[in-house]
Backbone:
């Protein structure tokens, strides 16, 4: 290998090391390559000049000198910071939505955006959580692959037929117009309209229960009034239980009104009497019943009448269940 070839190789190798998050230390690299420290310093200058002269290509990437460690480090203004990566990884682990293998693959890729020292810190912080990680049970081979296939079908507005396990473990087939995917409470959901009816009722299917997808040549166009708003749905629905939209009112006497307001994005306090807060919220579906019942005696349904009756009926069923056991 000629001198010029050796230098080109060394430049690329140093740049690749920096890309992997390594701290570039002049005297250490000089020993690794068997050259003088002055040669490595010139290499670093060449890399820095290239980055400075090609902003349109590399954006704001810089090889910065870190006085504290007497090393150079590649910094990407538009890349995720280590502290941001830690927050994302913690959310991924807490979601339990992916298989252990998928989670490790995602985290492994994310860790490449950190420096070597930060990578070690991240690994130590998440080690126990990874060891004790318990994924939710999946029927599909890969949540990530299924999610991406459905996303493409939604974008293309392509009709599909899914093979799906219902909650009671009955396997069914449904031909759908897929319109959205969402994540909530450990699961990804497909939202779609059935093709064999024209009631335009959005239905929810857990993506981890979809075991097969057939993509049809038939495409669809949604009427303007059937355009779906995932953001509005997320603000109004609980536990992804479908149903009608309505405004409810209830009283709350618990210790944290803010926890209720955080959980119910559309909720607002409309009145307050001592320790009792009157709260209104726009909701969709029956999941709100499950959530409010979990608050026990701290919550009392007030309006509308059918909402009050639904709460009472659930309470009666609970009471009867315990009475039967006596």
Residues:
């Amino acid at each position: 290998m000629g001198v010029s070839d050796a230098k080109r190789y060394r430049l690329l190798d140093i740049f690749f090391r920096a890309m992997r998050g390594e701290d570039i230390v002049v005297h250490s690299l000089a020993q690794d390559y068997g050259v003088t420290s002055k040669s490595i310093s010139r290499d670093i200058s060449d890399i820095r000049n290239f980055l400075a002269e090609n902003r349109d290509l590399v954006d704001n990437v810089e090889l910065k000198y870190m006085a504290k460690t007497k090393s150079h480090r590649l910094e990407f203004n538009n890349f995720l910071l280590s502290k941001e990566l830690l927050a994302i990884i913690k959310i991924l682990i807490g979601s339990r939505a992916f298989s252990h293998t998928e989670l490790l693959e995602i985290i492994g890729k994310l860790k490449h955006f950190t420096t070597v020292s930060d990578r070690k810190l991240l690994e130590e912080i998440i080690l126990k959580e990874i060891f004790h990680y318990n994924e939710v049970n999946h029927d599909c081979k890969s949540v990530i692959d299924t999610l991406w296939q459905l996303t493409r079908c939604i974008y293309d507005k392509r009709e599909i037929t899914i093979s799906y396990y219902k909650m009671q473990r009955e396997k069914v087939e449904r031909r759908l117009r897929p319109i959205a995917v969402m994540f909530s409470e450990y699961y990804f959901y497909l939202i779609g309209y059935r093709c064999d009816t024209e009631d335009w009722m959005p239905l929810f299917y857990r993506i981890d229960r979809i075991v097969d997808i057939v993509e049809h040549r038939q495409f669809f166009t949604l009427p303007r009034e059937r355009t779906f708003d995932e953001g509005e749905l997320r603000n109004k629905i609980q536990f992804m239980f479908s149903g009608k939209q309505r405004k409810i009112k209830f009283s709350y006497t618990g210790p944290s009104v803010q926890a209720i307001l955080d959980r119910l994005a559309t909720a607002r306090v409309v009145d307050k009497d001592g320790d009792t807060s009157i709260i209104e919220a726009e909701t969709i579906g029956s999941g709100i019943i499950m959530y409010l019942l979990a608050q026990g005696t701290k919550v009392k349904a007030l309006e509308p009448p059918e909402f009050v009756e639904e709460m009472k009926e659930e309470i009666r069923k609970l009471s009867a269940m315990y009475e039967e056991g006596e």
Q: What stands out?
A: The first helix runs from residue 3 to 19. The chain is about 45% helix and 25% strand.
